[in-house]
Amino acid sequence: MLDEAIEVKNLRKNYGKFEAVKGIDLSLVPGKVNALLGPNGAGKTTTLKSILGLVQYSGEITILGEKISMARERISFVPEDKSFYDSLSPEKAIKMCSLLMGNFSADKAAKLMKEFDLPMNKKISAFSLGMKTSTYLAIAMAQDADIFIFDEPTWGLDPIRRDEVLEMIKNLSLNGKTVLYTSHIIPEVEKIADVFSIMYKGEILYTGELKGLGSRFSLFNLPPETAIDSKAFSAVVREGKATKVLTDDSEKIRELRKIDGSKEEVVDLESFFGTLVRGNKHVL
Ligand code: ATP
Questions:
Q1: Which of 32, 140, 217, 275 gives a 20 to 30 Å CA spacing to 208?
Q2: What strands, in cross-sheet order, belong to the sheet with 218-222?
Q3: How far is the CA of 156 from the centre of ligand 1 (A)?
Q4: Which 8-state DSSP code applies to residue 248?
Q5: In the chain, what is the straight-line distance between the N-terminal and C-terminal CA atoms, in Å?
Q6: pLDDT tens digits, residue range 114-149?
Q7: Which of the listed residues 209, 237, 266 is the one where a domain comes to its end?
Q8: Which 8-state DSSP code applies to residue 246?
């Protein structure tokens, strides 16, 4: 078995002079839910489009050890822009997918669409946002692929459907499939991700396992005007006179605990993400 399901090396993507992705490396862990988190415009969709060969880029990307042209049928994809099937009804979309994709099960798609309560003969362009997302998910889940790539797969879904979909995504990984998933909804990522990467302004700021994040890192609120060496920490956020620092260095953690008036905050994905992104606002 390969160590990585997808390997991205030094990926760069410019739109004109604008650098949307600035030479990132990314390895997807097989059989896990790999989440790509980041604020609006971070470069997540551009990264996914590059992996799928939908845009030109520079760098090296391999999928299960092969180029995308050889591995297309091994990937199933839910795009951010859910307008591709607009001119069809779910029934016709299923027929079209059966013709175009060798790995597609029409029965499975129809069964999932029924579970999602979708009207099979209505035009998809007339669907609500959540119904369109459900249609794409049903089509994607009906493919016998090894890797599932989801760009914002819960967009517009009601809370009950969203939980069902998150469970389906988690189950894919429990059945040995690899998932790459983008979101900005942190509680969702916290529910299903095994590994996560944080992307900001075209760079990957951090990649690691979600489990144990709070015991690996510590986050301190330091008293006003505490002198610190900003470079020595994973992130430093200054807001007014207050300073927040994030670190996984056990010696630093011991020192920070001794500072009079320093307060330790719980590190969860929300506080980790917020501190890392705010702390890098001036850096990148
Ligand atoms: P969001 O979470 O808002 O969907 P994202 O992280 O997926 O954002 P991208 O869609 O990859 O971000 O966009 C990254 C940057 O590249 C943004 O600044 C965006 O404006 C720019 N960009 C994306 N597509 C194009 C394009 N076709 N032409 C020009 N600029 C683009």
A1: 140
A2: 235-239, 242-247, 218-222, 263-265
A3: 20
A4: -
A5: 36
A6: 999 999 999 999 999 999 999 999 999 999 999 999
A7: 209
A8: E
Domain hosting residue 227, numbered range: 213-279
Same domain, 141 and 217: no
131 and 118 Cβ atoms separated by less than 8 Å:
yes
Helix (H/G/I), strand (E/B), else coil: 25: strand
190, 234: one domain: no
Write down the mean pLDDT value for the chain: 92
- Domains of the chain: total: 2
Q: Would you say residue 284 has pLDDT above 60?
A: no
Residue 3 near residue 157 (C-beta atoms within 8 A)? no
Query: Residue 1 has what pLDDT?
Result: 52
243 lines ligand 1 (CB under 6 A): no
Cβ–ligand 1 contact at 246 (below 6 Å): no
Q: What is the reported pLDDT for 277?
A: 92
Alpha helices, DSSP H, located in 76-115: 90-100, 106-115
Q: What is the pLDDT of residues 14-28, one digit of tens each?
A: 999 999 999 999 999
pLDDT of residue 233: 87
Helix 90-100 vs helix 106-115: angle between axes, to the nearest 10 degrees? 150
CA distance 93 to 86: 9
Q: What is the pLDDT, as a whole number, of residue 228?
A: 84
Atom of ligand 1 nearest to the CA of 55: 27
Please check whether residue 149 is in contact with residue 169, taking contact to mean a CB–CB distance below 8 angstroms: no
Measuring from atom 29 of ligand 1, which residue has the nearest CA? 15
Q: Give residue-wise pLDDT tens across range 56-107.
A: 999 999 999 988 888 888 999 998 887 788 889 999 999 999 999 889 999 9
Regarding the beta carbon of 45 and ligand 1, being less than 6 Å apart is answered yes
Angstrom distance (rounded) from CA 130 to CA 261: 48
Q: CA–CA separation, 149 vs 109, rounded Å?
A: 17
